[in-house]
Amino acid sequence: MRFSSCAAQLPSSFEHRPAIVNDVNLHYVIGGKAPGSAPLMLLIHGFPQNWWSWNSVLTELGERYTVVAPDLKGVGLSDKPACGYTKLEMADDLNALVESLGGAPAHIVGHDIGGMIADAYATSYPARSLTIVDVTIPGIGDWDQVIADPRVWHFAFHQKRDLPEALVVGGREHVYISSFINRQTFRRGSISASDIDEYVEAYRHSGAFRSTMEMYRQFPQDAIDNRSAGRLPDPPRCSPLAAKSAGLAASANASAPCHRT
Question: Which residues, other chains included, contact 212 with Cβ-Cβ below 8 Å and sequence gap of 6+?
């Protein structure tokens, strides 16, 4: 594997690993407590980020958990197949990773699209807890109002077949990703220029930007799947763990069971 200068700077107890799950090679970072000696916490990044988005909390979380932070299928050093980007399919990949590490049931934490995947995970597999940061779940609650809000213009843009790839891929990744982050981040400046460079590198890999657009293009199917899933099982209970690394406000409620309305 070829790592960027940022990605090579892991805390001492962490390491990069590959895993083949569901015929897909996933790159992930693992560390903290030894597997089997503590609960596993799975950290699922969003767009336009990769595993590095959790870097600032790895050491702290590693004091209590076995921490696993993957590059999602389609991003960075993970494989980039042409299909398989519904959130249920992506959750299935991550559950296979967790089970391969002997870590089920795990604490599941997701930011942005990673939150959508985390929700799909918790509806399909046992989880110790569920934390969802800064995201609305397709088909659930005020989803229809959210997607009509011009502030989330990128939902519609990213679903246009072939257009985002044509406009961004091939040298304009840094312009698009840096602008996107600087406009969308709640706390301006919380994501550094070197962080942005790391994310740009992750999406410059061949097929990465297309793959991520496919995650958006599956929103209509995700909405159908989520409406069919019903109420999340009890437990898990929601908890705002690890939210600070995203530089965004947590949307989970620590005192109430996770539920759908």
Answer: 47, 48, 74, 75, 158, 203
Is the full-model pTM beyond 0.85? yes
pLDDT digits (tens, 9 = 90+) for 15-66: 999 999 999 999 999 999 999 999 999 999 999 999 999 999 999 999 999 9
Cα separation of 109 and 221, whole Å? 22
The answer to whether 70 and 94 are in contact (CB under 8 A) is yes
Q: Give the domains, in start order, of the chain with CATH numbers.
A: 15-246 (3.40.50.1820)
Q: Residue written as tokens 């996933």? A: 26
Backbone region of residue 91 per phi and psi (left: phi > 0; alpha: psi in -120 to 50; beta: other values): alpha
50, 43 in Cβ contact below 8 A? no
Q: In whole angstroms, how far apart are CA 56 and each of 62, 115, 147, 223, 229?
A: 11, 19, 31, 32, 34
* Distance in angstroms (rounded) separating the CA atoms of residues 155 and 166: 17
- Residue 140 DSSP label: S
CA distances from 154 to 112, 187, 198, 208 (A): 13, 19, 21, 17
DSSP 8-state secondary structure symbol assigned to residue 13:
T
In the prediction, which pLDDT does 60 show? 96
Question: Any idea what DSSP says for residue 135?
Answer: -
